[in-house]
Amino acid sequence: MIREPIVVVGGHVDHGKTTLLDYIRGSTVADKESGRITQHIGATDVPIDTINRLCGPLLKKYNFNLTIPGLLFIDTPGHEAFSALRERGCNVADIAVLVIDIMQGCQPQTFEVIEFLKRNKTPFVVALTKIDSMKGYNSNLSLQDVMQEIDEGRTLYAQDFTEKFYRIIGQLGEKGFNSDRYDKVKDFTKEILLIPVSARSGKGISELLLFLAGLSQRYLETKLALDESGAGRGTVLEVKEEKGFGKTIDMILCNGSISKDDYVRIDSRNGVTVSKIKMLLKPKPLQEMRLTKEKFEHIEQVYAASGLKIVAENVSEITAGDSISVITQEEAKNLESTIKSIRKKGLKGVIAKVDTEGSADALMELAKKNDVTVYKVEVGTATKEDVLEAKLFKEESFKYGAIFVFNKKVTQDVIDYAESQEIKIFSSDVIYKIFEEYGKWIKQEEENIKKRELEGIIYPFEFKIIPAYVFRQSKPIICGVEVLEGLLKPNVRLIQNNKFVGVLKKIQDKGKDLKEATKGQEVAVSIDGNSIDKLDLEKPIYGFIPLGQRRFVKKYLMNDYQELIEKLDNIYNAISEQHEQEKNS
């Protein structure tokens, strides 16, 4: 059996994500009697029967014989659970829909989503929305006929569409993705599908559902394998008070099953928690989970993939993005005992297992010389309980997520369990080699963390427009600039005089696109969203760094750009004060 693929929808604000999902939900109303259509926690379950009905002849045309149960859409793309999906447990997104307004092309939030998908290796298709907004659009034509009109290229609509379409192909190409129109793609593994849609009329929705279902089934079959008897695993979307229930958890069950009275382990940024499911709740068909006036249906068991609400014990410290795993009663008892013991001692460090007491003394001596904190050293081999302790310690620092084993064999089940919990075991019959390998691992992990945290980050920059080199006044502004400080990169919002003044779209030098420009360089740039007469040519312009990125900028780039970062902090504070004053007035 395979479960439903979980589909997450992302894109820039106002590009049509909600309208697209609203149409998909509306198209399923006719199948309400089937009992499979539910909309809850911002989740829409579209069963395979509905997809088959909507796609009709397209199934034969593209040779898709669909056997998946359906598609589970999650309309929380900006949600913390979406951004945390790699580091915290269950992978929420199996596949994604990147929504791009064909009139506007890729915008800052589009590129943020692209970087996220790229970093997490999440496959995606592109929905090109608002194809009905261009002049000359014929609402009576089918999508296939519209594509034929575009290929013939005789109409004003065809010319306008083609120009905007290839602009988006170019933007995706700059990010390393080959893409083409869905009906022209020959190798689905090498090209991103661009599917034109009208979310208002529903044109293109059938094609979008077909390719999401077909590609998921064809290329994600191993990932979607469902063990109905397997322990449930999922991710927290929301934690909130619910009248009559107290604090409840909205979650997505990604795999396996979960039942009333199950014990669960919750891996939170606040620590590991053991809880027991008191109630499993599902909304009525087509009821939004967030609308609490309606009554919920009490259920005994649910299988993945599914959105549900649970009432459980000990949930005060749980937050969005935390992972939930079903465990046995015995595992719950052992885990609670371990947690209490560790918290009582208040100590953390590497766990070491050795063959003799003499080896224990030698290991502790080497630990002092290498400045390694050891929580405990015991005679014996590593156990699953050691792995669990190391997992708890890892919450304090990744350096503690390790076990040293000297001159003892580690069983395969412990090795497998350590891998599943991302705990590193360093085992050798030469004691100093353990510390050598541990030191190399620490350096590599620090580099990986730095690389991960700096990936896609906006560097601080400051530039000034050169008045003599203004080539275009607006839509977009094209002008020459001098980089005064920092590292200039495209697709960044701009600030001048404590106000947002547009988006830096492209950087060029002698007609060639650049990925960046450094201090002292004079380059040509395009600025979208403003006109030159509204900018102060005498004053510098700065790049806006989103709040979530600023701590990484300070952590890694402070030495290189201290003065500029401090200047930007003052600008951000001034903008915040202005917003507060406007709000109060």
Describe the structure.
This protein has 585 residues and is of the alpha+beta class. The protein has four domains: 6-219, Rossmann fold (3-Layer(aba) Sandwich), CATH 3.40.50.300; 233-337, Elongation Factor Tu (Ef-tu), domain 3 (Beta Barrel); 345-454, 3-Layer(aba) Sandwich (Rossmann fold), CATH 3.40.50.10050; 461-570, Translation factors (Elongation Factor Tu (Ef-tu), domain 3), CATH 2.40.30. Helix content is 34%, strand content 30%. It contains 14 helices and 29 strands. An eight-stranded mixed sheet has the order 2-3-4-1-5-6-8-7, with helices on both faces. It has a six-stranded antiparallel β-barrel with strand order 9-10-16-13-12-17. A six-stranded antiparallel β-barrel has the order 22-23-28-25-24-29. Strand 22 and strand 23 form a beta hairpin. Helix 2 packs across helix 8 and helix 6 (143-152) packs across helix 7 (156-174). The longest helix has 38 residues, at 547-584.
- Give helix % range: 25-40%
Count of strand segments: 29
Strand order of the largest sheet: 2-3-4-1-5-6-8-7
Oligomer: single chain
The CATH class label of the largest domain is Alpha Beta
Task: Give a quick precis of the structure.
The chain is of the alpha+beta class. It has 14 helices and 29 strands.
Q: In terms of topology, how is this protein built?
A:
Layout: E1 6-11, H1 17-27, E2 39-40, E3 43-47, H2 48-55, H3 58-61, E4 70-74, H4 80-83, E5 95-101, H5 108-120, E6 124-129, H6 143-152, H7 156-174, E7 179-181, E8 192-196, H8 205-219, E9 233-242, E10 246-255, E11 257-259, E12 263-268, E13 271-282, E14 297-299, E15 301-303, E16 306-312, E17 323-327, H9 329-345, E18 350-354, H10 357-369, E19 374-379, H11 384-394, E20 402-406, H12 412-420, E21 424-428, H13 431-454, E22 461-472, E23 477-488, E24 492-496, E25 499-509, E26 512-513, E27 517-518, E28 522-528, E29 541-543, H14 547-584
Parallel strand pairs: 1-4, 1-5, 5-6, 6-8, 7-8, 18-19, 18-20, 20-21
Antiparallel strand pairs: 2-3, 3-4, 9-10, 9-17, 10-16, 11-15, 12-13, 12-17, 13-14, 13-16, 22-23, 22-29, 23-27, 23-28, 24-25, 24-29, 25-26, 25-28
Helix pairs in contact: 2-8, 6-7, 9-11
